[in-house]
What we know:
- The protein has about 70 residues and is an alpha+beta fold.
- It has one domain (about 1-50).
- Helices cover about 25% and strands about 10% of the residues.
- It has helices at about 10-20, 25-30, and strands at about 1-5, 50.
- The protein has a two-stranded antiparallel ribbon with strand order 1-2.
- α1 crosses α2.
Amino acid sequence: xxxxxxxxxxxxxxxxxxxxxxxxxxxxxxxxxxxxxxxxxxxxxxxxxxxxxxxxxxxxxxxxxxxx
Length: 68
């Protein structure tokens, strides 16, 4: 799916909105858009990026607190 960025957006923000998580999806979007890293942290407005179809994302491992 092609996505046109809005002002002030970052890859992780787009991933969180589109996929529901930024965990591992950010890396997948960067792999699908190799030149995206050159644009810096905040992507220029109206940049077209490819959002690949991701069917399953590995869940984040639960962490254990010392006092648990």
